[in-house]
């Protein structure tokens, strides 16, 4: 019999749907010897979205997608209208692991199924979502789907973004690996009533503290830059060292200067994870190098200092080395605080399970940082073995994956009760 869930005695002890097996099944889509490569609108990404839709349909949920490629599974509530949404992304970095993103998307589906199995009908409709293109590993912007959903990036802007082969987002979306055939495309981007995202931590803090759940306080702000260093190409055998304007040695000096600046500022992280050398030949002095900077902090002031340092280091190396350094901002995201009331609801859900949970910031970016622009949002973390993520051997204990699903399920119930009593 359907009934409203009384707080404190939510009948959710039945076996949840099999999160571990489902993640193993998804991991086959895009599997390579080095990890999973499931870039947005690739055949592997389409397989993962189709599998998500198939699980949702089998559970009796209403499945739709939007023009940004996000896929939604909706379970009706007692009332119509804005849903409580939970999910994460199915795309990966080029050698990614099986849990970053996929865990939160599939866990949301499992949570809705657990509620259905327990006969619990919430006041709000519930939606599990698989966000499109969170990683920014195909098109040069992260959180493409959730950013469009939250109105942070206009769909027309996203449509025009091109990958390295010159294929635009719109072309990829309309290709065979784009929007799912047979799944209705819904109009616009309806704002949710609330949002909660479950994710692996991707860092070492929970493991180090011996705690299995983390409630996110805020998500780090980010700035991403494209840097172009232009020197002079020449013959590797004939140009004396003193007469060279080698773009790669200048870029190397700049990368080390950036690392030193980040260390000096403190409580910031800076990564140069992509660097392209032209013409990339053994016997040619590099004439041009382009690289990308990813800079982050949960402290806005320090991030601003780091941004100043990025420009200053570029100017200094350019002057010292006689090269040109152009630094273009690709993407900027402010620090995003999670909603205090939803955080408390998530912490309460963990306590109902008898689990200690700690408050912690997120250094990684997540779809929640976009959705928070249009709805109160919260996040829950489970541990990552060795703190490792964005690598093929990313691992979280099955018992922790299952615990996270139980905590998410209860969090959704608690958020529904909260937003019913005190809507925002
Ligand atoms: C996404 O995983 C990011 O934090 O870059
Ligand atoms: Mn992720
Ligand atoms: Mn990631």
Describe this structure in words.
The protein has 424 residues and is of the alpha+beta class. It is 34% helix and 23% strand. The chain is built from twelve helices and 17 strands. It has helices at 19-27, 43-58, 102-117, 144-149, 155-160, 169-173, 205-209, 247-265, 300-321, 340-352, 368-371, 398-421, and strands at residues 31-32, 35-36, 62-65, 71-75, 84-89, 126-131, 194-200, 213-219, 221-230, 234-235, 269-278, 284-285, 288-297, 324-333, 336-337, 357-362, 377-382. Strands 3, 4, 5, 6, 7, 8, 15, 16 and 17 form a nine-stranded mixed sheet that branches. A four-stranded antiparallel sheet has the order 11-13-9-14, with helices on one face. A two-stranded antiparallel sheet has the order 1-2. 50% of the residues are buried. One manganese (II) ion is lined by residues 89, 100-101, 134, 199, 366.
SSE layout and pairing:
Layout (H helix, E strand, L loop, with lengths): L18 H9 L3 E2 L2 E2 L6 H16 L3 E4 L5 E5 L8 E6 L12 H16 L8 E6 L12 H6 L5 H6 L8 H5 L20 E7 L4 H5 L3 E7 L1 E10 L3 E2 L11 H19 L3 E10 L5 E2 L2 E10 L2 H22 L2 E10 L2 E2 L2 H13 L4 E6 L5 H4 L5 E6 L15 H24 L3
Parallel strand pairs: 5-6, 5-7, 7-17, 8-16
Antiparallel strand pairs: 1-2, 3-4, 4-6, 8-15, 8-17, 9-13, 9-14, 10-12, 11-13
